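Lecture notes, part 5. Sequence design as translation. It can be helpful to think of inverse folding as translation between two languages: the language of shapes and the language of residues. The source text, in structure tokens, appears below.
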């Protein structure tokens, strides 16, 4: 019985609270309705309260400026004065005369490869030449002796011809040995690796004691100065390529760090990538760029006139761009939101591809307070 009594009391309390809340809400609705009627009467009597007040904004007229038609590609910088040093002989490195970063002149020795075997070959060729030179001397003496006897009629003409043939054969063999000796001596010079041009020594991946072959990279010698940008253009754009077309090297923020023009257009298409190679010489006076560096190359196809708007006037919502334009409506300026398609930035302005026409009054301040259709008043 106590439990039933307690439950009944709780139910009564809940119903009493619900009735109280319902009464309170009813009174609130009545009060708000009365306040609305009073406001509507006041607005009807006040001619200035017929609409919302105009929002003060700053306006800027969209203007036409020359705009470049460009496309950006990934390019590779290469140097015409950069040499990859590889040995012309095989062997073991015995000495390294330079360090990475050293400046060297043309002909300076960079490394030495063990020449012992080649030196032995040269010595052997020199001994063979000396022996053949002795044979030639003896053959010449024989010929001279037989020539004198033949003149006296002591020996036959056949003996003279054999002596002459032996002498000529000895001379020919000596000339052949001279050529072989010269070849081996030239080969011996290859065991001392020299710089082919003035420049700076690059990384040296080999060490003393390493065995190298003719395909081993010993180091590089780079001559500071101009570079060439290698740009691969899709084949569908190749008909638009022309010699001396502008090419710009830009950084990650789109700032131009070097300007050039197309100096080479490949007559062939790369079979694997279906691209056409173009080259542009890049001046690198301040050494901002490096050989084999990947850069962004902007090819300028041409220019046209187009509208621009300040960056402050553009808002981005959900990946789309918008701007407010002030338009005349019944003698008053009203803000209308326009979707935009923008291009690159020129200074502090966006290039507008669609959405804004030249002469439109673009709102550049107070856009955070605007909605479509809101009245605006231009600030001086």
């Amino acid at each position: 019985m106590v439990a039933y009594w307690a439950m009944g009391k709780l139910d009564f309390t809940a119903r009493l609270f619900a009735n109280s809340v319902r009464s309170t809400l009813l009174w609130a609705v009545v009060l708000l309705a009365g306040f609305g009627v009073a406001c509507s009467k006041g607005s009807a009597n006040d001619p200035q309260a017929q609409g919302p007040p105009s929002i003060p904004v700053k306006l800027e007229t969209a203007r036409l400026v020359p705009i470049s038609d460009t496309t950006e590609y990934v390019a590779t910088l290469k140097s015409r004065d950069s040499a990859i040093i590889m040995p012309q002989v095989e062997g073991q490195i015995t000495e390294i005369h330079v360090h990475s970063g050293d400046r060297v002149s043309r002909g300076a020795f960079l490394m030495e490869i063990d020449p012992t075997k080649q030196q032995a070959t040269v010595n052997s060729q020199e001994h063979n030449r000396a022996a053949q030179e002795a044979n030639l001397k003896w053959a010449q003496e024989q010929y001279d002796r037989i020539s004198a006897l033949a003149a006296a009629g002591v020996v036959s003409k056949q003996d003279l011809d054999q002596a002459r043939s032996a002498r000529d054969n000895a001379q020919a063999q000596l000339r052949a040995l001279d050529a072989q000796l010269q070849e081996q001596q030239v080969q011996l010079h290859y065991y001392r690796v020299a710089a082919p041009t003035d420049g700076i020594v690059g990384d040296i991946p080999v060490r003393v004691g390493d065995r190298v072959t003719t395909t081993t990279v010993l180091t590089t010698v780079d001559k500071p100065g101009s570079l060439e940008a290698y740009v691969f253009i899709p084949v569908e754009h190749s008909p638009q390529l022309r010699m001396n077309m502008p090419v710009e090297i830009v950084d990650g923020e789109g700032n131009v760090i070097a300007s050039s023009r197309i100096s080479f257009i490949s007559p062939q298409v790369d079979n694997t990538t279906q691209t056409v190679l173009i080259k542009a010489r890049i001046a690198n006076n301040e050494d901002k760029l490096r050989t084999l560096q990947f850069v962004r190359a902007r090819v300028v196809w041409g220019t046209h006139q187009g509208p621009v708007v300040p960056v402050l006037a553009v808002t981005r919502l959900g990946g789309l761009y918008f701007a407010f334009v002030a338009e005349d409506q019944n003698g008053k300026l009203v803000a209308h939101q326009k979707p935009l398609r923008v291009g690159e930035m020129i200074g502090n302005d966006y290039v507008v591809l669609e959405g804004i026409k030249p002469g439109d009054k673009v709102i550049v301040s107070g856009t955070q307070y605007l909605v479509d259709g809101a009245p605006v008043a231009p600030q001086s």
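The translated text above is only one of many valid answers, since several sequences can fold into similar shapes. The CA atoms of residues 102 and 123 lie 35 Å apart.
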